[in-house]
Every structure is written in C-alpha cells, then in structure tokens.
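INFO batch 0412 | record 1 of 1 | parsing
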Amino acid sequence: MRTRTEPKYSAGECKAATRYLRELFGSIAIYIALLVPSVTYGPAMEAGPLKTLALICPIVGFLLMIWAVARQVGRMDEYQRVVMLETFALAAAVTAAVTFTYGFMENAGYPRMTMFAVWGVMGSAWLVIGLFRRWKMDR
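INFO prediction complete | emitting tokens
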C-alpha cells in the first residue's frame, strides 16, 4: 500500500502513458479524418475498385489504433500486461455474451444489428472494465 507522500506513478510510467495517448488520439484523428469523407462520398460513388477503396480507407486509422495499443503493451511490465490481458479477455467475454444474446433477439423479430456495433460493445466493455479495475486497485 502506498503512503500519502509516495507518488502514484513513476516518471517513466507517466512518460509512457503520455506517448500512448498521443499515438492513440492521433490514430483516432486519422480514423475520423478518413471516416467522414468515406461515409459522405463513398456510398454515392459508382461501383468498382475506387468505391471499395473509399469505403474501406478508414481502416488505416483503425490499424494505427491497434499499433498504438500494441506499442503500449510492449512498454508495460509483466504485471501490467497480465492485468491488460485479463481486462481484454473479460471485455471479449462480455462482447460475446451481448452479441450472442442479441442474435437470439434478432430471431424473435428485433432489427438486425450492424457489425459496427460489435466494436462499440467491445470498446465500451474494455473501457468500463479497465476503469473499474483501476478504481479497485487504487482503493
């Protein structure tokens, strides 16, 4: 347990977190910059390779997000990696439960859900579980 005068995080941890947030939010900005014209102009384009390219170009930003997360995991020590892996595994389990349940609800007449919703569930579960675990560890 930390004392009140002991710093919560080391200078190295703060520097790594700052670098991670810069990389992550930079990749999100690229994603949004590619997404807006993709959804605005892509659907109206004539079918063909150019339309396909226009519609999938936001994946560049998403791949950069994966790169940012992978780099951050590489900066973590073994304990932090285990915590991150457990958090991600729980988020995947929550996502599986939600999407599986909704699949049955679709059979009962609920509207079909877009695959984009799966990432929303996964990201939200990862965030909520991570924040809860952080809150629990800081207590």
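INFO post-check: The CA atoms of residues 62 and 74 lie 19 Å apart.
INFO record closed
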